[in-house]
From TrEMBL:
It comes from the Bacteria. Residues 203-346 form the Mannitol dehydrogenase C-terminal domain. It comes from Oceanobacillus luteolus. This is Mannitol-1-phosphate 5-dehydrogenase. One of its GO terms (molecular function) is mannitol-1-phosphate 5-dehydrogenase activity. InterPro entries: 6-PGluconate_DH-like_C_sf, 6PGD_dom2, Mannitol_1_phos_5_DH, Mannitol_DH, Mannitol_DH_C, Mannitol_DH_N, NAD(P)-bd_dom_sf. It catalyses: D-mannitol 1-phosphate + NAD(+) = beta-D-fructose 6-phosphate + NADH + H(+). The gene is mtlD.
């Protein structure tokens, strides 16, 4: 069985590639990083190490790679032969691979009627759906009908903390032991991929919201407050009682609306939150606050991990969240010069003021009380910096 996976980065090698190998797939990674592509083709294997006492090592074999910037034709050919296509490249990059995916699927449909599933494994709601939309923008009406029959784009939620790697062995990836991969069963075509480690569900929305608004919300607060208080790493930020309290507070707010919206058992959800706080504190993982806080414009988007739970909390609970809004305010103070989006937020604030910047990035109306609270919190945090 052949899997084509876009993105041979942290989650691609450390999580998806790992599970694919253990499920019997040969994996072809598609990437634009010439060094990683070269090394994968030279070694045809890499190590995954668990970030825990004992540091258990796993060797992932049967892998190779294609540089899509240099050899797009090879990617098109690989998609024609594939049994599964997956991605872990980042939400902002999905539109950029749509042309190549469309070409690959078109070429495949010319040769056979074999169905194929394309699963985006990104930290976002509706990643595969977005990729499908972008692919379909390249198609004729007739092709769309043909693709509807042949190709599935089930959405998915992936959870495993894989920090930036600083190992001498450039292919080796250190990962946390925990993982979860949930895939929407109803949008699959053909045979269900037999991958132990995937949980198939009928309705993905509760799972992706639970994950994005707990793991990623908490992580984002730890990152932005960690940065604010001058911490370099997430586990160190979690040692700061002020930050811990803010993160825990935000997760209990998102948990309150999630439990009410989806009927989650409150006790189980409280355990889920505690487990996540424990994962953030893992001393065997060196995870920079600037990695976890990366792309703050994306993270401040109306449907992402900060604004969506804050808005939904106020809608479902009928009150304003305290900690979630502090998290939004802290993201507006994130001025890391190595992050293009952070620089853009700061220059926007300078150019049009914080009020307009909040409206621009969060789409929260300036009439709302949420908006006023964010401004107040922003000013307080700025004064006390
Ligand atoms: N690192 C983590 O712990 C987790 C990450 N994710 C999600 O997985 C996705 C990837 O994240 P990471 O692996 O951390 O990032 P990463 O930066 O380590 O990996 C992304 C890879 O995509 C490649 N890439 C960039 N443009 C490309 C293109 N046009 N075609 C093919 N490859 C391209 C990059 O060269 C890189 O190797 C993101 O959506 C992230 O939110 C989800 C859960 C956990
Ligand atoms: O990958 P993103 O969406 O930029 O955000 C970083 C987040 O992704 C993760 O790496 C994995 O879920 C988390 O560690 C963190 O919340």
């Amino acid at each position: 069985m052949l899997a084509v996976h876009f993105g041979a980065g942290n989650i691609g090698r450390g999580f998806i590639g790992n599970l694919l190998f253990h499920s019997g797939y040969e994996t072809v990674f598609v990437d634009v990083n010439a060094e990683i592509v070269h090394l994968l083709n030279e070694k045809n294997e890499y190590k995954v190490v668990l970030a825990e006492p004992g540091q258990q090592e796993d060797v992932i074999k049967n892998v190779r790679a294609i540089n899509s910037a240099e050899n797009p034709d090879q990617v098109i050919e690989a998609i024609a032969k594939a049994d599964l296509v997956t991605t872990a490249i980042g939400p902002n990059i999905l539109p950029l691979i749509a042309g190549l995916v469309a070409e690959g699927l078109r070429n495949r449909a010319d040769q056979s009627n074999r169905p194929l599933n394309i699963i985006a494994c990104e930290n976002m709601i509706g990643g595969s759906t977005l990729l499908k939309e972008k692919v379909y923008e390249k198609l004729t009406k007739a092709e769309m009908a043909q693709f509807d029959d042949l190709f599935g784009f089930p959405d998915s939620a992936v959870d495993r903390i894989v920090p930036n790697q600083t190992n001498e062995d450039k292919l080796m990836v250190k990962v946390e032991p925990f993982y979860e991969w949930v895939v929407e069963e109803t949008k699959l075509v053909g045979e269900k991929p037999d991958i132990p480690g995937i949980t198939y569900v009928q309705d993905l929305v509760p799972y992706i919201e639970r994950k994005l608004f707990t793991v990623n919300t908490g992580h984002a607060l730890a990152a932005y407050f960690g940065y604010y208080y001058g911490e370099e790493f997430i586990n160190k930020a979690m040692e700061n009682p002020q930050i811990y309290e803010l993160v825990e507070g935000a997760l209990s707010e998102s948990g309150e609306f999630l439990a009410k919206k989806y009927g989650f058992n409150a006790e189980d959800h409280a355990k889920y939150i505690q487990k996540i706080l424990h994962r953030f504190s893992n001393s065997h993982i060196v995870d920079e606050v600037t990695r976890v806080g990366r792309s703050p414009i994306r993270k401040l988007g109306p449907n992402d991990r900060l604004v969506s739970p804050a808005r939904q909390y106020s809608e479902v609970i009928g009150q304003e969240p305290v900690n979630l809004l502090k998290g939004v305010a802290a993201a507006f103070l994130y001025d890391f010069q190595g992050d293009e989006e952070a620089v853009k937020i700061q220059s926007t604030i300078e150019g049009i003021g914080i009020d307009k910047a909040i409206e621009t990035f969060t789409h929260i109306s300036s009439e709302s009380t949420l908006f006023q609270t964010i401004i107040e919190q922003y000013k307080l945090l700025k004064e006390n910096k």
